[in-house]
Write a structure and sequence with these properties.
alpha/beta, 2 domains, 4-stranded mixed beta sheet, globular, TIM Barrel, 259 residues, phosphatidylcholine lysophospholipase activity
């Protein structure tokens, strides 16, 4: 919650978070299904009641920045999704449904409806099954492209068929493949891994693709970018926005760009 408050105070346009369901069917904001990395306790979210969840560690690693850690926030409780909705009633929220769980999907939808946030929410997952269930549960909430649909999208783009195919997704969220090379010791990368990263980057990071989707009202977000050069590249390619672990850096970049 400290990170969310900091981001919103800076003027962040959207919060991105992940949801799991506890044993007593509370929707909590947590990326991992197992709490070891974030709390030091080896337990699954689904095996504990909400009141049994351990607090966050004081120091956490930043996944998309090499050898970097963050500290801060006196409130170390794992928040409920409704806590986020109540704290930021006017801030759009991007929800990754982390488990293929019908109850989780239903409960997230109920919370979105309860807090009148269908126009402020986008949800989905890399799994096409989960995205399909989300759409079936509540078609009024915009959905993300699943991995399967991203691959189809790329295929349609390169065959020239994309303009003729209807798309019900409203958000494309993709990684910038080149960042994964930055996060890994170059000596540990094989030639095959380098080639795959280069190929994925070449196929996905296309200005014509981003412009086409934007013209169709589909927003394009690139993740997770934490360096100024990556911010610049994403926006130069026509991305609607970027996901970052450092909203302060992004704000400074945007202010400099607009002066």
């Amino acid at each position: 919650m400290a990170a969310f408050r900091h981001a919103v105070q800076l003027g962040t346009d959207m919060l991105e978070l992940d949801c799991h369901l506890t044993k007593d069917e509370e929707v909590v904001v947590s990326h991992d299904h197992n709490l070891m990395r974030s709390t030091g306790v080896c337990a699954n979210v689904c095996d504990l009641a909400y009141t049994e969840l351990p607090p966050y560690l004081c120091k956490l690693d930043v996944s998309f920045q090499k050898e970097c850690f963050c500290e801060g926030g006196e409130d170390k409780h794992i928040p409920l999704l409704r806590d986020v909705f109540e704290a930021f009633p006017h801030t759009p929220v991007n929800i990754d449904i982390k488990a293929n769980d019908d109850t989780l999907i239903r409960k997230v939808s109920e919370l979105v409806v309860k807090y009148n946030r269908e126009h402020l929410t986008v949800w989905g997952n890399t799994s096409n099954k989960i995205v399909q269930k989300c759409y079936k549960e509540n078609p009024q909430i915009p959905i993300l492209f699943s991995l399967q649909r991203v691959l189809l999208l790329v295929g349609l783009f390169y065959t020239g068929l994309l303009p003729f195919v209807p798309l019900r997704e409203q958000f494309l969220e993709i990684p910038m493949p080149s960042i994964f090379i930055k996060l890994t010791d170059p000596r540990r990368l094989t030639k095959r891994q380098r080639f795959i990263a280069w190929l994925a980057d070449t196929l996905l990071m296309r200005k014509a693709l981003f412009n086409h989707l934007t013209a169709r009202g589909i927003q394009v977000y690139v993740w997770v970018l934490n360096d100024e050069e990556d911010f610049h590249r994403a926006f130069a390619l026509g991305a609607t926005g970027v996901m970052t672990d450092y909203p302060t850096k992004l704000k400074e970049f945007m202010e400099k760009k607009n002066t």
